[in-house]
Each structure stands twice: as C-alpha cells, then as structure tokens.
Design a protein that fits this description.
The protein is an alpha+beta fold. The protein is 17% helix and 38% strand.
Length: 641
C-alpha cells in the first residue's frame, strides 16, 4: 500500500505555536539536470520496457518511475500538487496499487483528481481510468478522512498513475517530502514556494549518518527550494529496526513565524511546555463524578501510594477502550470520554492523569513519538513530531518516575507498549525533563524442566516464569486467542500427553505443565532442551547491515534443565559447554552442561543488556546469534544399554 499523509489537523487544535529550529546546511551535488515536464496520461512503450531499475534493485517488486510534488503557500491558503507513477513488476508489488490520501473533508478540497491504470497489450497501451467505484472514503476522527484509491485492472507489468491538486484554506506551518521508499525511485522532484513567509528552515530527517551520503550523491538539481533526486536505491527492510522515517531520505520545511500564541521567539522545548501548561492543560475539565465515586470506596484504607496507583491504573485499563487514532493531544472532553468509555490514546491517558492528581498522586503528561513516527529530534522542538502521550508518576516512595499507559490491555504498570519504546519522551512540567522510554524494560523468562524415566514412561515437569515483556506477549496471545494454550502444546509437543496445566500470577505469570510419553519401543531417545525459546532462529542472516539494530527492550533468559535416568540407560551426547559475550559484554550467553553418571544438569543463560546496537557492531552480533542458535539446535540423546 502506498500512503500519502500530508495533511495536519490544525483546524481542531487550540494551540498556537511558533517554532524556531536551527538551520542545517546541506552541500548538494548540483549538476542541474533540467526538471522533467511530464503530463498525466503521456505513457510510452519505453515506460513498460525500461529495466534501468535493476541497477538499483534487481529483485524489486515495483518501481517509482516518476514522482513530483509542489507545495505553494499564499496569503489565502496552501495548494498541494502531487503526480505519481509506479510500475508493478510482480505480484509482490500489487500492494502499491492501493493509495491512501488523508485530508479534511468539507474543509480541504480537490481541484484536480485523476487516476489511471495502463497495461501493454502487444504494441497497444490499454488504459483503465479510476471511477467512483475505485475510491473509498473513511472518516477517521472529526473531519479527518482517508481517501483510498484502489486502481482497477492491475496485474504484473501494469503502470499506475495518480495526479491531484488539493487546496487547503490556511497557511500551513509544516511541510515534508519523502524521496526514498522500500522500492527503487528513478525520479523524485519536489518544489516548495512561499508567498507569505520568506524564512523557512530546511532540515534532513535522516537519523544520524545513514543516508546523508545518498542524498548528496543523488541530488541532480537544487535551486530555490526545488529538489530533484534520481536513481534512489530502496530503503532496506531489515529486522529489529525502528521507524523507517528515521532513515529515509526526506525534506522538511518548518515555518519560523506562522501562528500567533507561542509566546517567545526562541522556540525551545521549555517554551513548548510553558505554552502547554498555560493554555492546553488549563482547559482540562474536572474528573467526572462517576469516576471519583467509583474509585473512592476502592481506595478506602489503602495504605501505600503504590497500591493506590495500581487500583486507579487497573480501573482505567480494564474500563476504557482505545480507538485506532494515535494523538499526543486529546480530542474529546473528559465527560464524553467517560460516557463512551473510549477515546484516543490522549483522551484516556490524560483523564487518567487528572484522576491521579485528584487522589493526590504527583503525575505529569509525557509526550513522545512512536516507532512508526520516528524518533524525536531534540534539536527541533516541533509539536507535529509528537503523536502519543502517556503519564509519568513521581513516586513518593522511591523518587523515581513510573510510566503509565492505560490504553494497552496487557501492559503492566510501569511499562509502555513496545511501539512506544522509542528513545526519550518529554515530561511536561515547568522545568521539563527527558525520560528514557525503555527505562528498565526487560523480557524476563526463567524456565525450569525436570525429566524422569520410570520404567517405560518418560515424564517431564515444566515451570515457566514470565515477567516484563515475556509476560505481556504471552498474555496478549491468551487474551486474543481462546485456544492459544491448546495451540501452544499442539505446536511444540504434538507427540506428548499434556497434563496438569496451570497458569497463575499477574505481574509474574507462572505456567506449569506436565508431559508424558511411553518410550517402551524406543532404544534411543532424543530431547530438545531449548524448544520454544524466544530466539529460535538467527534473526541476522544477511552478510551486511545498513541500519542499526533496535531490540526495544533488554533480555534476561535462564533455563535450568535436569535429567535423571534409571539403571540400564546412559547419556550418549549432550549440548556443548560455552561461554560467549560481545566485546563490551552488552550481550552474554553461557551454556553449562554437567554429566554425572545417569544424571545431567544444563544451565542456559542469555542476557542482552543494551537495546540499541550500531551497524559497526553487526558482524559481532551476527556471529553471537549464529553460535547461540547452533547450541540451541543441539540435543540431549540417551540410549538403553
């Protein structure tokens, strides 16, 4: 799916911000290729037969042949022009035959809208224009609408084309253009013009250093905020990577003096927080009586703040349902959110914030950017880069901050959903603070297994203790699939009889179960002690890596495995002993095996104490996981004497 989401919800916002960001200078390769004049519908046979994209990616499923954007700001509003051509190369590229445009219906209007699919039949180019049957409108919230275009008659080899002009009756403070996608781009052109503001600042959105070289090498024209980039390789799809927005080649334009009520010229994060405190948060209503009356009896005689916090958090987590719309700022009143028992992320979490304050708990809003939205750039205090809000409680007992997000049904108090573990968040207070969103977040699993053989019956007693994200992942699977436990045992122990299954606990889930198998007809038994580990395959098989590795949270896994065999059996082979670590000990793995007669004890430990690893560390990390999986594939084998 190809998504175009250029519109911003300034219509419903009551915040007036003026920004100031540092100017980042870029030395472009200005070879001054002339901009192409491409008319909608002017398709040639050469567009179908050209294979120049193969130099960029010979395995591509689709290729952007041409893309042009033009944003023009005038006193009476903004005009946005877009023209796009994509060639579908194989079935994998069919997802690009659907396009989404976001806009505010009844407020922003299309003055031009054309779409067409082209197919080559011999020497004849056949075209199928889009109709009303191919466009679908979905209201997201208020007047924000998604216009989905499903191009007709698309197959391998098709070319799709879209052209539109959107009029926005306001002066926009923020513009961006993305040059790079997960498919090759042969030509991308963007022009920005402003009649009203003369001072716009330009910045690269690339995170750190990963694509700066590419933007310089591929820019073939740059003059007066007019850019042309050609022959862009696709943004690599790599596992354990944050938002593609952190790495794609793109351009932002941000107005310095666009809106009125910012209050100060410096445009710092401190100014943003001051503006929010003095304007936005002052508009918050009182907590509805229904909530206060429901909580008061539950909090009577509660001795500690942590108990009180747990009760209030549980009330919101169980009683409110989040919609699909992420936002750093609330859209509904507290009374309306309480009436519906639902709302966006901020509607629910800000109501939670006010309720905590109502019961004398020190709490602050935290603004952040989720993984799919890219990391916050501290050098650029732009509220439009924030798309999520949670709560930070300052504990009277420890003095530390406790993060809360009541919109996720499985996340426990003190943790955030994985998609929110994205660098740092801004604690909004008179003296703002930045907080590490990952904090002490861990995936913790402690598994103990005891194997006994009595006559011909092989019995296995298992206990799995799950904390942190191991708990949340397992809990979500159970909540969303009523047959998950049965599916779990059928997948991993299909030939065993499963007995005495219990699941207990809250913050620490404890799964206990017994396995039995009759081995009377077996002279040689093979057991896999590492069955169903979190890392059951090597996630890093590619020889090269272009983007850093982001695990989101730390890992702490322990497995203790004991086998006791009677006379008449012997242990033939067992996994090898090993002690392995990354150069800085940020990832450590040990596998200690001790065999004494007919008894075996295996102790497996895996610790990953860092969430972010850089490209320069990839080879070491790849080798680390290669050895880890090699050990996990080894078995315990015992035979009859």
């Amino acid at each position: 799916m190809y998504e175009i989401t250029f519109s911003m919800n300034l219509k419903t916002g009551n915040l007036g911000w003026v920004f100031f960001v540092s100017l980042i200078f870029i030395n472009f390769n200005t070879s001054y290729s002339k901009p192409r004049k491409v008319k909608f519908g002017d398709i040639n046979i050469s567009d179908f037969t050209d294979e120049s994209y193969k130099k960029l990616d010979s395995t591509a499923s689709a290729v952007v042949l041409y893309e042009k954007g033009h944003d023009e700001v005038k006193v009476d509003g903004t005009t946005r022009y877009r023209h796009l051509r994509i060639k579908i190369l194989n079935k994998g590229g069919l997802e690009y035959a659907q396009t989404i445009i976001s806009y505010f219906k009844g407020y922003e209007t299309f003055s031009k809208f054309n779409g067409c699919t082209y197919n080559l039949n011999g020497d004849l180019i056949e075209k199928t224009e889009i109709s009303k049957d191919n466009t679908f409108k979905e209201k997201v919230i208020y007047d924000l609408t998604y216009k989905t275009i499903a191009f007709p008659n698309v197959k391998e080899g098709s070319i799709i084309e879209l052209e539109y002009k959107l009029y926005i009756p306001q002066i926009r403070p923020y513009f961006d253009w993305v040059f790079q996608y997960e498919i090759p781009v042969l030509y991308s052109e963007y022009k920005f013009e402003s009649e009203t503001f003369k001072k716009y600042f330009i910045s690269e959105l690339e995170f750190l250093k990963f694509v700066k070289g590419d933007i310089m090498n591929h820019t073939t024209f740059y003059a007066d905020n007019h850019f042309i980039l050609e022959n862009l390789k696709p943004l690599q799809k790599e596992i354990y990577t944050g938002a593609k927005k952190d790495y794609e080649i793109s351009i932002q334009f941000i107005a310095k003096n666009t809106l009125a009520n910012w209050g100060k010229k410096s445009g710092t994060w401190e100014d943003l927080c001051e503006n929010l405190i003095n304007n936005y948060f002052k508009t918050f209503e009182f907590v509805p009586n229904e909530i206060k009356n429901s909580l008061k009896p539950l909090l009577t005689n509660v001795a500690t703040e942590s108990e009180k916090l747990d009760i209030i958090y549980s009330y919101f987590q169980k009683g409110f349902k989040v919609n699909e719309f992420k936002s750093a700022f609330k859209e509904e009143s507290f009374s309306r959110t309480n009436q519906l028992k639902s709302g966006n992320v901020s509607d629910i979490n800000m109501l939670l914030l006010q309720t905590l304050k109502e019961f004398d708990i020190e709490a602050y809003p935290v603004l952040l950017s989720t993984k799919d939205n890219g990391k916050i750039l501290k050098s650029m205090p732009i509220p439009y880069n924030l798309n999520y809000s949670v709560v930070a409680v300052k504990s009277k007992e420890t003095g530390e901050y406790i993060l809360l997000d009541a919109t996720d049904k499985d996340i426990k108090l003190g943790y955030l959903p994985e998609y929110a573990l994205n660098g740092e968040g801004l604690i909004v207070k008179k003296v703002p603070e930045w907080i590490d969103l990952s904090g002490k977040s861990k995936f913790i699993e402690k598994r103990s297994i005891t194997v006994q053989l009595d006559k011909s019956i092989l019995s296995v007693e298992c206990q799995d203790k799950l904390q942190g994200y191991a708990n949340f992942i397992f809990s979500k699977k159970i909540r969303t699939n009523t047959h998950f436990i049965d599916d779990y045992f059928n997948a991993y122990y299909p030939t065993w009889e499963v007995k005495n299954t219990t699941l207990t606990g809250n913050n620490k889930l404890i799964l206990k179960y017994s396995l039995q198998k009759d081995i009377n007809n077996y002279d040689r038994i093979s057991l896999s002690p590492y069955s169903n580990m979190y890392f059951d395959t090597n996630p890093f098989v590619d020889e090269n890596r272009t983007l850093p590795i982001d695990f989101s949270y730390k890992h702490d896994v322990i497995l203790v495995y004991n086998i006791n065999l009677p006379e008449g059996y012997r242990i033939e082979s067992a996994p090898e002993n090993i002690n392995l670590s990354m150069p800085d000990n940020s990832a450590k793995f040990s596998n200690l095996v001790k065999v004494e007669g007919n008894s075996l004890q295996l102790i497996y430990k895996l610790k990953i104490d860092r969430t972010l690893f850089f490209v320069e560390e990839y080879d070491s990390l790849r080798e680390f996981f290669s050895t880890l999986i090699k050990i996990q594939n080894q078995k315990i084998v015992f035979t009859k004497i």
